[in-house]
Design brief:
The complex is a heterodimer of chains A (about 400) and B (about 110).
Chain A: H1 16-19, H2 21-24, H3 30-39, E1 41-45, H4 51-61, E2 65-69, H5 94-105, E3 110-114, H6 123-127, E4 132-135, H7 140-153, E5 157-163, E6 166-172, H8 180-183, H9 196-199, H10 204-222, E7 233-238, E8 243-248, H11 270-273, E9 284-286, H12 288-296, E10 302-305, H13 309-312, E11 320-322, E12 341-344, H14 350-360, E13 367-370, H15 373-380
Parallel strand pairs in A: 1-2, 1-4, 2-3, 4-5, 9-13, 10-11, 10-12, 12-13
Antiparallel strand pairs in A: 5-6, 6-7, 7-8
Helix pairs in contact in A: 4-5, 4-10
Chain B: E1 2-6, E2 20-24, H1 28-38, H2 40-46, E3 57-61, E4 64-65, E5 81-86
Parallel strand pairs in B: 1-5
Antiparallel strand pairs in B: 1-2, 3-4, 3-5
Helix pairs in contact in B: 1-2
Classes of the chains: A alpha/beta (about 400), B alpha+beta (about 110).
């Protein structure tokens, strides 16, 4: 069953035939499927690692209208995986860069750009005009927002997400199966898990997962038989072990948005839902300049570098004891609770997690978080060190 | 019962990068608890303060989510796999609460 009704089919003109020849040769697509692609409107949320292959393959496939939402600018660190952007696009809006690339690839595509952050205030207006949404976002609040908006508007949400070497993909379509909330009723508390910005991500991973999403988008549009799409199945991919696994997803009858008695009937405050608006009580920070001053005074401090060995190979933080983030509780005895400890990581986030974990494990000493991590130290104190 | 715990990438920082470990347990809950016992740094990531499994963690015995079976009481057979599937979201900062943590560009939020 296709999500594009027959009455929307638009004839292909002769100039389109050679371009889509390899689709037209497939009985599963054929002229009718290609006409459905031409009629379809797909919204890609996020023009990043997942959005790049999504936009490129959907444009190449002849999707008639592609919307792209992103409010970021292209940065050098994006180029390792976000192949829709080029070196010359650094500092340009991602939507503009993506639009140029899509147009270059297939000028027949109508590209609609939204150079804004998707919010509860604009999501319904942006999404309601589309047949499918492909979620290539990089944070939980937008994932829940996209999910809820798709459920409320009855739009299938083709989901992909990545971390380090691992990807997940499925199709959430509440009319036919589970939604994101059925699988994950609530996000991790802020700061519990490091992000890709800290944990890293292998560049081809979003290429693979985003391409799987593109495949599912095309199948929804062209129409496939029961059980052939990813609805109700979660695909798990480990790029380093090159293993695909698949698990079943079932609709949760108690789901607050797509269950039998939904309590979420309109969009909510997703920052609050994801716990991003609550202050982190009692976490003491120290700026790089303050730390420098205290080290110059030879204040008694123990510096604890919670970065991984391979990061310390980029550069070691002078005078710091290396205790990787994942070992701090196990190695708590190596710290002296009578001496103030300063925790150091790349941007100040894993160090905050380490402090929280130690506090919960009963560590009694005073702990400070180096604000902005080694990147801020390199920026504010020692320009000879790299920011990575 | 010896069962294999499959560890997601997001939690391998706590297991010396190990992707799977063998533990003893008769139920999914016992197996996961044995796993958390072997790596104390991971406990806080799997369980909340009340000791319940966190809601962004799913446990699968084979292909089946224990939520759709008997929860943590779901029995496991000898040699079966218990897979931990957490929510992952990719790129951006997950901590924006303290004002202490800039986003991944190094700017303050």
């Amino acid at each position: 069953m296709s999500i594009i009704s027959d009455r929307r089919l638009v004839a292909l003109d002769n100039s389109e035939i050679p371009r889509y020849s390899r689709h037209l040769l497939l009985p599963e697509v054929g002229p009718e499927g290609q006409q459905r692609l031409k009629a379809a409107k797909v919204l890609i949320v996020g023009a990043g690692g997942l959005g790049a292959p999504l936009a490129l393959y959907l444009a190449a496939a002849g999707v008639g209208t592609i919307g792209v939402v992103d409010h970021d600018l292209v940065e050098a660190s994006n180029l390792q995986r976000q192949v829709i952007h080029s070196t010359r696009d650094i500092d340009r809006p991602k939507t503009e860069s993506a639009k140029d690339r899509i147009r270059g690839l297939n000028p027949l595509v109508n590209v609609v750009t939204y150079n804004v952050a998707l919010t509860a205030g604009n999501a319904m207006d942006i999404l309601h005009d589309y047949d499918v949404v492909a979620d290539g976002t990089d944070n939980y609040q937008t994932r829940y927002l996209v999910n809820d908006a798709c459920v409320l508007l009855d739009i299938p949400n083709v989901y992909g997400s990545i971390f380090q070497f691992e990807g997940q993909a499925t199709v959430f379509h509440a009319a036919d199966g589970p939604c994101y909330r059925c699988l994950y009723p609530a996000p991790p508390p802020p700061g519990l898990v490091p992000s890709c910005a800290e944990g890293g991500v292998v560049g081809v991973l979003p290429g693979i997962v985003g391409t799987i999403q593109a495949c599912e988008v095309i199948k929804l549009i062209v129409g496939v038989g029961e059980g052939q799409g990813l609805t109700g199945r979660l695909l798990l991919f480990d790029a380093w072990r090159m293993k695909f696994r698949e698990v079943k997803l079932e609709k949760d009858p108690a789901c607050p948005v797509c269950g039998e008695n939904p309590v979420i009937n309109e969009l909510i405050d997703y920052e609050q839902f994801c716990g991003l608006t609550q202050p982190d009580e009692g976490m003491d920070g120290i700026t790089p300049l303050e730390l420098k001053a205290r080290l110059d005074k030879e204040d008694p401090l123990q510096l604890v570098d919670v970065r991984e060995q391979h990061e310390r190979n980029v550069f070691a933080f002078e005078g710091a004891k290396p205790v990787p983030f994942g070992q701090v509780v196990r190695r708590m005895d190596e710290l002296d609770p009578h001496t103030e400890a300063v925790f150091i990581c790349k941007v100040g986030r894993r160090s905050a997690l380490a402090i929280r974990a130690l506090r919960e494990a009963g560590y009694a000493g005073r702990m400070l978080n180096l604000l902005g991590g080694t990147n801020a130290w390199a920026r504010d104190v020692d320009n000879s060190l790299p920011q990575y | 019962m010896a069962v294999t715990i499959l560890i997601p990438t997001a939690l391998r920082a706590f297991t010396d990068r190990k992707a799977e470990v063998e533990v003893e347990g008769r139920t999914a809950g016992e197996a996961v608890a044995a796993f958390a016992g072997a790596y104390p740094d991971i406990r806080h990531h799997l369980y909340d303060d009340a000791g319940s499994l966190r809601s962004f963690i799913n446990i699968y015995v084979g292909e089946k989510n224990v939520k759709d079976a008997s929860g943590l009481e779901t029995p496991v057979r000898d040699g079966e796999t218990v897979m931990i599937v957490p929510a992952i979201a990719g790129g951006k900062a997950l901590v924006r609460d303290s004002g202490a943590c800039p986003d991944d560009t190094g700017r303050r939020p």
